[in-house]
């Protein structure tokens, strides 16, 4: 893990086309601005995990529904 210290309005660059800028700090919250190409998905971690869970459930659910219809 790379650990960086940034102040408000400072940024970091990932690759050639992703920029993350610190927009503000209020208490324990940090506001970040993310500039990335449209084809790059950007999600909060909890949303990403939910998407991955849903992707994992879909094939299983479809099989379960097909088995129920056959019975």
Give an overview in words.
37% of the residues lie in helices and 28% in strands. It is of the alpha+beta class. Strands 1-2-3 form a 3-stranded antiparallel β-sheet, with no helix packed on it. The chain is extended and about 40 Å long. The termini are far apart. The mean pLDDT is 86.
Low-confidence stretches: none
For the biggest sheet, the summary is: 3 strands, antiparallel
What's the tally of helices? Answer: 1
Shape: extended
* Elements, N to C (H/E): EEEH
> On the 0-100 scale, what is the average pLDDT?
86
Q: Which structural class should the secondary elements be placed in?
A: alpha+beta
Number of strands: 3
Beta-strand portion reads: 25-35%
End-to-end separation: 51 Å
Provide keyphrases for this structure.
single chain; 71 residues; alpha+beta; 1 helix; 37% helix; 28% strand
Quickly describe the structure.
With 71 residues, the protein is of the alpha+beta class.
List the helices and strands and how they pair.
Elements: E1 11-14, E2 18-26, E3 29-35, H1 45-70
Antiparallel strand pairs: 1-2, 2-3
């Amino acid at each position: 893990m790379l650990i960086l210290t940034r102040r408000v309005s400072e940024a970091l660059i990932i690759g050639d086309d992703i920029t993350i800028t610190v927009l503000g700090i209020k208490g324990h919250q940090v506001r970040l601005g993310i500039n990335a190409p449209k084809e790059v998905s950007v999600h909060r971690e909890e949303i990403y995990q939910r998407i991955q869970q849903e992707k994992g459930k879909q094939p299983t659910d479809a099989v379960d529904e097909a088995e129920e219809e056959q019975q």
